[in-house]
Design a protein that fits this description.
Helix content: 25-40%
Largest sheet: 3 strands, antiparallel
Number of helices: 5
Shape: elongated
Number of strands: 3
Order of helices and strands: HEHEEHHH
Length: 139
């Protein structure tokens, strides 16, 4: 299928930017929901071409194709789009680390508290010392 170069570049740049692409199995859809100017059929054909060359890994579930870039696919798209090596897909970027927790004082958790949770016995005063019925009965 002939696909215009502008549409091919739009699909490849979106795939490289995000690292993943979702394509619904719908050949008559006039547009792809995330890529402007491309039909869904064009995106499906481009993904099929990349899959046959092992540049993407594809999972199919519930009438949707989920396409994930492989390391070989990243190198291919980087050379096809003439991008520098510093630019990586969003799925390969490091997630921001969580900030360190604040220092907790020892007396906050080890100090005075409710006797039901801190003392020996505490909320267990309602139980009698003789036991009860059943296996634990004192009789």
């Amino acid at each position: 299928m002939f696909i215009p170069k502008s549409n091919r570049i739009a699909v490849f740049s979106y795939l490289f930017r995000e690292g993943v692409l979702v394509v619904k199995k719908d050949t008559v859809s006039p547009t792809h929901p995330h890529i402007e100017g491309c039909t869904n059929l064009e995106v499906m054909c481009l993904m099929k071409s990349l899959k046959s060359r092992a540049f993407i890994r594809e999972t199919f579930s519930w009438q949707h194709h989920y396409c994930y870039l492989t390391p070989e696919g990243i190198e291919y798209l980087r050379s096809y789009l003439a991008l520098p090596a510093e630019i990586v897909p969003a799925t390969h970027k490091k997630a921001p680390t969580r900030p360190e927790g604040r220092d907790r004082e020892d007396e906050k958790f080890g100090g005075e508290g409710k006797p039901a949770f801190r003392g020996a016995g505490g909320d267990r005063e309602y139980r009698s010392k003789e036991g009860g019925f059943g296996r634990g009965g004192g009789m």
